[in-house]
Recover the amino acids of this structure.
């Protein structure tokens, strides 16, 4: 067997990958710490890329309609920064609208809860005192309690004194964490602005690097996959927002028809939390049921039944149709991806399972179509070679 230089390097690479894989399996804790350290360093950049991705969705709309065909150089230079500012204002306006709809009603609900809870506890206490069935057990339990209040207070004072140092350390740690988070957000936001200002330049640089350092076929395939990934994630975000708006509107209309309280606030909250697929609306449902239940238990039951029906319609009809069609994924695979993603990674798995499954579905469909076309071409070629036109000897005699 003749080993040329290229084959030797391939064998060395295979051995190196095998050794690295074996070492990784034996040192998973060190690898985890290393990945966590790298993740902490790169987190502002990753977060900035996510911010840029979200801002780019409304920014593309503004770029298509704002000074799109202007020949004025000053307007052309201001077009991109102005579109970024309008995108930020649009997203902040949506968040402010949700807060304006939710917070006043939530404050009123908290006020009702604060007023009603003492009354509820008073009724419970009155019932326990007036109940002859529980009085002997309660008196016996209180009589059996032997509490040395002096010793208890001394122990409590000792615990508080000993915990003062750890409490101070914890306060310092929390404050440093808050300042670190604020700093990371500021850096990520600045990084996102730089990405949006020069996104065409960054795309061109990445394309040139891929074509320079990767084989031509692999580079082309990588660029196609990245383009497909970006398009699917954009459609997924758009579909998710559309589905959340539909669900919130239906919840608000249904609660209005049933004359349930807090319809505006709960509808906005259910729609906002529905950005998390399938199960996100249940967070708003729990809050809504609790708030309605503080006023009327029967209305809370009606709300729960109504939202159960709405969730069935949303999970089996609206979500697969709206989100699935936006990312090009059939409804059955939408439900399957959410189920598997939720089982593996919880809420994060549910959030990213649909676009990831859509990417795999598109790549698999393309690969299958190419293989079938090649197989059909080969079979057609073999058929043409095996069934040639009739030779002169086989032609009928005149």
């Amino acid at each position: 067997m003749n080993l040329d230089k290229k084959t030797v390097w391939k064998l060395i690479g295979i051995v190196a990958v095998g050794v690295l894989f074996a070492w990784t399996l034996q040192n998973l804790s060190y690898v985890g710490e290393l990945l966590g350290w790298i993740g902490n360093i790169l987190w502002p950049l990753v977060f900035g890329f996510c911010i840029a991705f979200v801002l780019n969705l409304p920014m593309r709309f503004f770029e298509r309609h704002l000074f799109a065909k202007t020949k004025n150089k000053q307007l052309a230079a201001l077009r991109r920064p102005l579109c970024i500012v309008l995108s930020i204002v649009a997203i902040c306006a949506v968040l402010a609208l949700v807060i304006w709809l939710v917070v006043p009603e939530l404050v009123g609900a908290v006020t009702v809860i604060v007023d009603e809870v003492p009354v509820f506890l008073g009724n419970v206490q009155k019932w326990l005192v007036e109940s002859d069935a529980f009085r002997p057990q309660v008196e016996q339990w209180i009589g059996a309690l032997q509490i040395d209040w002096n010793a208890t207070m001394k122990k409590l004072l000792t615990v508080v004194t000993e915990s003062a140092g750890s409490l101070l350390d914890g306060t310092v740690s929390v404050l440093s964490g808050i300042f670190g988070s604020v700093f990371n957000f500021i850096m990520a936001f600045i990084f996102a602005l730089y990405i949006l200002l020069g996104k065409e330049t960054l795309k061109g640089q990445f394309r040139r690097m891929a074509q320079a350092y990767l084989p031509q076929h692999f580079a082309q395939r990588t660029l196609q996959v990245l383009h497909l990934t970006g398009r699917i994630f954009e459609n997924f975000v758009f579909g998710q927002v559309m589905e959340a708006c539909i669900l919130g509107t239906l919840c608000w209309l249904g609660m209005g028809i049933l004359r349930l309280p807090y319809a505006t606030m709960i509808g906005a909250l259910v729609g906002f939390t529905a950005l998390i697929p399938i199960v996100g609306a249940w967070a708003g449902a729990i809050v809504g049921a609790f708030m309605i239940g503080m006023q009327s238990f029967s209305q809370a039951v009606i709300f729960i039944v109504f939202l159960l029906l709405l969730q069935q319609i949303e999970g089996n009809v609206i979500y697969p149709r709206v989100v699935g069609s936006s990312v090009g994924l059939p409804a059955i695979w939408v439900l399957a991806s959410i189920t598997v993603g939720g089982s593996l990674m919880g809420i994060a798995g549910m959030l990213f399972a649909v676009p990831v499954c859509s990417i795999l579905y598109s790549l698999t469909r393309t690969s299958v179509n190419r293989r079938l076309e090649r197989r059909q071409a080969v079979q057609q070629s073999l058929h043409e070679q095996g069934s040639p036109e009739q030779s002169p000897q086989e032609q009928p005699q005149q």
